Amino acid sequence: MFAVRNTTPQQLRDALADNVRHYRALKVPPPEKPLSQERCAWAAGIDRTMMSKIERAKTNPSLDTLLKLANYLNVSVADLLAERTPPLTGRKK
């Protein structure tokens, strides 16, 4: 379970920014062009500048904004705020 007690606001903003970029990239499968910030914001029902601020970790979005974004990206708000672990490499020890 994800605990926010020991997380600073900046760490939450950074995790949110990473996750939004990650899930936005997954929204449109390759070989198509990636989903733009503007199109994602429009489809989610949030302002384009808010989307930019979220992805740059420069704002604390409201719960309403997080819900709209999570619904559009088909993930939970907890998924957006969770710190993602880096992918494992294929190295064996």
TrEMBL record:
Keywords: DNA-binding. It holds the Pfam family HTH_3. PANTHER family: HTH-TYPE TRANSCRIPTIONAL REGULATOR, METHYLPHOSPHONATE SYNTHASE. SMART domains: HTH_XRE (SM00530). It comes from the Bacteria. It comes from Limnohabitans lacus. This is Helix-turn-helix transcriptional regulator. InterPro entries: Cro/C1-type_HTH, Lambda_DNA-bd_dom_sf, TransReg_Diox_bact_type. Residues 43-80 form the HTH cro/C1-type domain. The keyword DNA-binding applies. Transmembrane segments: none annotated. The keyword DNA-binding applies.
